[in-house]
Design goal:
With 105 residues, the protein is of the alpha+beta class. The protein is 36% helix and 27% strand. The chain is globular. Keywords: Monooxygenase, Oxidoreductase.
């Protein structure tokens, strides 16, 4: 039996002035396909009052997250991202230590 430790990835993305619509479109384009990738437990996009975007993902394991990051979809997104971002993403990742519901993980 394989044991998985869920991994979360979360952070803020600040659009360049005049690029909020483009960045929102790029980010929204990731939601559906990413939720369909093996090991995706949660994938959410939020828009803050200050104009930043907050992305929250939970993956069944680091391996699942790595496979997701290697997809052509993510590679294309990462290549396009700098055109629409002010600075680098403020990103965090970590192993989830609180129990995840067994019927989801």
């Amino acid at each position: 039996m394989t044991t998985h430790t869920p991994v979360s990835l979360y952070g803020f993305l600040t659009p360049r002035p005049g690029h909020a619509d483009e960045l929102r479109e790029l980010l929204l384009g990731l939601v559906g396909p990413s939720r369909e990738h093996a090991g995706s437990l949660q994938y959410h996009l939020h828009e803050q009052e200050d104009g930043r975007f907050f992305l929250y993902e939970v993956w069944r394991s680091r391996e699942d997250l790595d496979r997701h990051n290697a997809t052509p979809l993510l590679q294309a997104f990462m290549a396009e991202l700098p055109r629409h971002m002010e600075g680098a993403p403020e990103a965090y990742s970590g192993a989830m230590r609180s129990p995840y519901p067994a019927d989801v993980a």
